[in-house]
Inverse folding.
């Protein structure tokens, strides 16, 4: 069957994504796979040979990682200039054959959010396509051995990436100082995660694998991303309600206002000055004066009744404006980025809208200027591309947390400034987050850890 993910229920899409692993535009000539390759070529009449090898190799990898299938691109670009000549036409023809002959289900992805770039409308957030292996495919692997290190070289390349800051294209890592050490660390983390018992809505998920992505060189960026999306694509309410580690419900803790608080912490370390001395102990980077924006209280109450949770669209707006402003190279790009986020937010269902109850047009430039003014002591970090440096610091903090929790035998899932563990490990996680902040920044004056 062929399904359209855009028409499916959110939980079903989440379960699908968590059951699949990433794939490579690559095939192995391994003798372990040759029996399956030959069997498939008989069925296809010898057609699409390289595409068959590609599908067999990636199917084997999915089975090895306890996955139901793998992520696949249904666009031509990834197959262009494939080193092994795996062409898009061959892949397309083979997938149509496999679906027709009941080997696979195809779940077609879509563009979830768009943005303007140089006057063009380009994808900003996409939901990938998935191939799910049906019983006829799984029977092919009965009794076939799966050598553990067959994909080692490609997986090693995947776990540490350096991307061009402008084009986002992946750069060579060969010979770069620090890459080897990072690969060893990431492989160690992924090896431990592969032994974890993680379920979503009662169903086991595929092996969780992380990569660390640097920007330009090894001194910028470095954040952790789940390969293929995985846990990081789950909405917060689904993570909280349906995710289980070792059979236990999970708890998620995050750092409040991590980037501005890192800046305030560094200023305190360097100058001995605390913003609390001037602004008071209850100072929050998010509490900018946005009184020029009105909120429809009846609509706010409508959303709170719908979700059962408090809704503060002004705080949400300030939070996003700070994030974008500290990660933008200029005020103009920050204003454009915030405007795009607001536009996409208003297309979502009411319960998912961050800014629902703000009916009027939001003056994005004024908002960005207001959050900078409120955080005047660190104003030089706004509209200056500071985020790329701050991301390196927050990623070092998160890796310190991972190392500490692993030593205590806990599975930990990370997403930028937050971490998820089983409920019984919540206090250990809280302690690890405070210790990691101190280990990286030297002091905990501006460390704020909250439960999500």
């Amino acid at each position: 069957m062929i399904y359209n993910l855009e028409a499916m229920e959110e939980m079903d899409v989440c379960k699908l994504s968590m059951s699949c692993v990433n794939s490579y535009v690559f095939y192995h000539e391994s003798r372990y796979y040759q029996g399956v390759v030959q069997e498939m070529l008989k069925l296809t009449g010898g057609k699409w040979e390289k595409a068959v090898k590609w599908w067999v190799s990636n199917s084997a990898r999915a089975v090895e990682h306890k996955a139901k299938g793998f992520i696949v691109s249904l666009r031509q670009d990834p197959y262009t200039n494939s080193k092994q000549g795996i062409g898009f036409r061959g892949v397309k023809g083979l997938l149509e054959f496999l679906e027709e002959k009941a080997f696979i289900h195809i779940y077609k992805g879509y563009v979830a959010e768009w943005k303007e770039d140089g006057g063009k409308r380009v994808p900003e957030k996409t939901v990938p396509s998935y191939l799910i292996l049906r019983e006829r495919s799984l029977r092919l692997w009965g009794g076939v051995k799966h050598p553990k290190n067959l994909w080692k070289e490609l997986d090693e390349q995947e776990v540490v990436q350096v991307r061009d800051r402008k084009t986002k294209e992946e750069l060579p890592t060969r010979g770069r100082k620090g890459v080897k050490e990072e690969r060893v660390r990431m492989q160690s983390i992924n090896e431990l995660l592969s032994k974890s018992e993680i379920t979503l809505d009662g169903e086991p998920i595929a092996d969780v694998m992380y990569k660390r992505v640097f920007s330009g060189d090894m001194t910028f960026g470095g954040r952790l991303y789940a390969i293929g999306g995985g846990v990081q694509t789950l909405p917060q309410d689904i993570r909280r309600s349906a995710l289980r580690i070792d059979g236990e419900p999970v708890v998620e803790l995050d750092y409040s206002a991590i980037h501005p608080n890192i800046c305030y912490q560094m200023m305190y370390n360097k100058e001995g000055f605390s913003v609390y001395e001037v602004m008071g102990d209850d100072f929050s980077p998010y509490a900018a004066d946005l009184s020029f924006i009105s909120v429809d209280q009846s609509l706010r109450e409508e959303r709170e009744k719908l979700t059962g949770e408090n809704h503060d669209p002004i705080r949400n707006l300030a939070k996003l404006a700070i994030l974008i402003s500290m990660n933008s190279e200029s005020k103009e790009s920050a204003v454009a980025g915030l405007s795009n986020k607001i536009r996409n937010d208003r297309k979502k269902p009411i319960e998912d809208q961050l800014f629902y109850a703000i009916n009027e047009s939001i003056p994005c430039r004024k908002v960005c200027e207001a959050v900078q003014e409120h955080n005047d002591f660190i104003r030089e970090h706004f509209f200056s591309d500071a985020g790329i440096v701050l991301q390196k610091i927050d990623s070092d903090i998160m890796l310190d947390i991972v190392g500490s929790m692993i030593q205590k035998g806990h599975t930990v899932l990370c997403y930028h400034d937050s971490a998820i563990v089983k409920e019984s490990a919540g206090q250990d996680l809280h302690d690890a987050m405070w210790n990691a902040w101190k280990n990286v920044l030297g002091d905990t004056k501006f460390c704020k850890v909250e439960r999500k």
